[in-house]
Amino acid sequence: MRKKGPSSKTSAFHKPATHPETGHEKEEPYGVTSDWLRIAEGAANAGFFDWDIRTEHITWSEGIYHLFGLPPDAEPSFATWLAAVHPDDLEPALTRMHESIAKRISLNNEYRIVLPDGHERWINTLGNTFYDEAGKPVRHSGMCIDITVRKEMEEALRESEERFRVLVEASTQAVWETDAAGAVVKDLPSWRAYTGQTLDESLGYGWVDAVHPDDRERVEQLWRQTVAEEKNVNAEFRLKSPGGGYRWTNVVSSPIRNRNGVILKWVGMNIDITERKGIERELRENRAKLEAAINSMTEAVFIADTEGRFVEFNDYCAQYHRFKNRDDFSKSITDCANYIDAYFGDGTPAPLDMWAMSRALRGETASDIEYMLCRKDTGEKWWGSYGFAPIREKDGRIVGAVVAGREITERKRLEEELARGRAELQSLFDSSNVGLVLFEARPPYTVITHNKFYQELFAEPYRTAGMVGKNIYEYAPDIEAQGVVAVLDEVARTGKPVQLFDFPYDSHPPKKSWFNWHLSPIIHEGEVVALASLSIDVTSQHLAEDKLRKVHNDLELRVQARTQDLEKAYQKVLEEMAQKNALADQLRQAHKMEAMGTLAGGIAHDFNNILAAIIGFTEMAIDDVPDRPLVEKNLQKVMTSATRARELVKQILAFSRKTKYERETLALTPVVQETVQLLRASIPATVDVTLSVTATSDTVIAAPVEVQQVVMNLATNALLAMQDRKGSLEIALSDTDFEPDASTLDATSREYLQIMVKDTGVGMSPEVMKRIFDPFFTTREVGTGSGMGLAMVYGIVKDLGGSIAVESEPGQGSTFRIFLPKAKVETREEMKQAVLPRGTERVLFVDDEAMLLEWGGETLQRLGYAVTAVADARQALEIFSADPSLFDLVITDQAMPQMPGSDLCSELLRIRDDIPVILCTGHSETVSPEKAREIGVREFLMKPVKRQELASVIRRVLDRDKG
């Protein structure tokens, strides 16, 4: 090391030496070799300096030159150092240096320098100051160390920690850390935001208090075990939310270790999985519903994956495939093939790849595919009918298949018996000496079947080959001229039988014959589907009668004078025959209406059960979504539609004289507007619809569904009259005064409402107008209408005390005017929502419909009652018999397969005569309110029952018994 200066003296701190690079003389500290100094400076990336404060003389080592990037001839001076320090760090560096001298403390000064090439470097200067006897500083010595790498690492660490802090604060999850023992020791902002706990509440193991009480012990034990075993953790539990309540969270945590593997702390994160848990719960519930649904089916249902392994099947599968129980049933289609052989309908073996499940897994869909099955071990055989389909993902990929099979062994046996019966019937059919033939019910009247006698009436080739598949013109060209076709047309159009006696007919070979001919329609679901002809050959009788008439001509002339008496007698006979025929027509009509009533009753029973479930569960759903107005609005629409459906069932029953409407004071305007709105969706674009409402007051006494049916049927009739043509439909609601000559109106009322339906259709002739209100009368083709629409309108309007006026001409359209008397009370207050009566009594609820059983149990529980819900009437009787005092009330359905509700009521009352019983039914011919009271039933309800009605009836029954 050398000193630069004007005197060029060698410092006492150094001795002369030669610089290894420049060749100049330099000075080295005494007692230390230059090699040692270079090794020390190189290892520490440092340099030494000495500053004589009194003389301002500075010396420094070679390391200083390298640190500051100075040339070998640079002057070791204070100014050189000042010029190298970064301008932003110069003042703080000088301040720290002067403070260390003034305060007699060691110097530890960190600052940046700027190298000659512009790069920056961090320097840490360490030094001590020496003082004379007077306490004045005389010398300052120390070293400069390059700490650039350390500073860069510190900056990177600071940036990393800052990014981590920002990430934690921005996260919606809880990010936290604990000490090595697993205890919280510092503030956790994201934990506070996630749980609402303060720092004091979470310190140590206080965070456990935020865990749900049911999960707390398990979570704390798991965490202590994790800390003890030094392993990662991944767990799910419920954690408190800031707003109250709990939410599901997934916690993941790992230890942070030092280089030696020692745990310094634990870092973890809580992720909100509440939504996922809800989805998992919904999936479990849906799976449970699926299992319950397929187990309730009387068909064998099984679902398989793509390998043919059964992932789901119902209990009936085992019984259907002749296994002892569910556990013995096969686990896959190949396993099933080890026990069972399958055959096609023709008796040929069905290979495994042609079984229903194999076909479904190939992407096939089919129904009513029949196989005969046979157990290999017992030889038992049975027939099954299968439906199958693949299960696909959204992208169309097949992920499984579903198969449903029902046993049809009995049906196959009946089909075989039916085939034998048909053969026997055909033999009897052919042996008859009466001509029998069955025609299609439309021109050209193709023959469906006939017997041999009918076949022999015609010439070759029909006498040999027959006429099946031939129309009547092919084998009898002159048939139309003989009047046969006209009779066929009449029966096909009217659906009424025709009988012709001594009907002349030219058979083949040409021969004049006479027949007594009976032609009858075959009707299915109100439609003529075929025509049956029965021809009895009366030619011999007719010829004998001709001869007899010739023999007795003279006698008839002699008794002509007495024919008047005979004519009177004959007229009387004709009148009696006419009365007899009229009674027969009335009897047929009565049978027809009775059949319709039976059909309506069946519809009412099944449909009312369906509506009861829809109404009941919709009411519960409305209660469950008070904070979701859009959902509640949609549910209210479902309730309105279900209520209309209930009224429609009442209408069907009313038409078959099973029940009456519940009429009320009704405003017609909204009902008519809503009906027209419903019609618009089905009205062709070629028809222009207008609605006009000018009535000043529009209230009548009626049921909404009656008015809807009147407008709907009249509008439908008008649209059919304008079919395939452009036209307009005008509907108007207006006031009208009583007209004295309108004898059909109620003369006690002078104010009427008029509903007008006017169209520009084909119009009607006077003959048609006379019959438009007759039941089953229609001008349309068979299958396009029942002829009951206008008859229903007529019946409703008459029952409401109104009248109908019709104006129509062919080609000029039609106008229907409905006159309804106005109600004396024009408006009615909207009924306020009644408070649901509640209670705490014990109720036994019995219904064989699973949905209604679930609704009844849930509804009664929501009303506060303790409910026992039973689907089997016999089981309900056993439960009640075991402890008759256990229940305060019994509610039961009427139509149940095990035991009718009326019989169950009788048995319950026989055991305990004071038990209150409520009997419910959708429709029943066997029980009525009067009969129910005779049995001892307290209340009789018609399904579907709304919750308000049920709650009120229950309280009325129970409170009546309490006094």
Commentary on this structure:
The protein is an alpha+beta fold and 963 residues long. 40% of the residues lie in helices and 26% in strands. It contains 30 helices and 34 strands. The strands form 8 sheets. A 6-stranded antiparallel sheet has the order 13-12-17-16-15-14. It has a 5-stranded antiparallel sheet with strand order 4-3-7-6-5, with helices on both faces. A hairpin with a 6-residue loop joins strand 1 (14-18) and strand 2 (25-29). Helix 20 packs antiparallel against helix 21 (629-655), helix 20 (563-624) crosses helix 26 (850-862) and helix 23 (704-721) runs antiparallel to helix 25 (789-799).
Summarize this, please?
The chain has 963 residues and is an alpha+beta fold. It is built from 30 helices and 34 strands.
What labels describe this entry?
single chain, 963 residues, 6-stranded antiparallel β-sheet, 5-stranded antiparallel β-sheet, 40% helix, elongated
Secondary-structure topology with pairs:
Elements: E1 14-18, E2 25-29, H1 34-44, E3 46-52, E4 57-60, H2 62-68, H3 78-84, H4 87-103, E5 107-114, E6 120-131, E7 137-146, H5 148-170, E8 174-179, H6 189-195, H7 199-202, H8 213-229, E9 233-240, E10 246-257, E11 263-272, H9 274-295, E12 300-305, E13 310-313, H10 316-320, H11 333-337, E14 340-343, H12 356-361, E15 366-375, E16 381-392, E17 398-407, H13 409-431, E18 435-440, E19 447-450, H14 452-455, H15 462-465, H16 472-475, H17 484-494, E20 498-507, E21 511-524, E22 527-537, H18 539-551, H19 553-558, H20 563-624, H21 629-655, E23 664-667, H22 668-680, E24 687-693, E25 699-702, H23 704-721, E26 727-737, E27 751-759, H24 766-771, H25 789-799, E28 803-808, E29 814-821, E30 842-846, H26 850-862, E31 866-870, H27 873-882, E32 889-893, H28 901-911, E33 917-921, H29 929-935, E34 939-942, H30 947-961
Parallel strand pairs: 24-26, 30-31, 30-32, 32-33, 33-34
Antiparallel strand pairs: 1-2, 3-4, 3-7, 5-6, 6-7, 8-11, 9-10, 10-11, 12-13, 12-17, 14-15, 15-16, 16-17, 18-19, 18-22, 20-21, 21-22, 23-25, 26-27, 27-29, 28-29
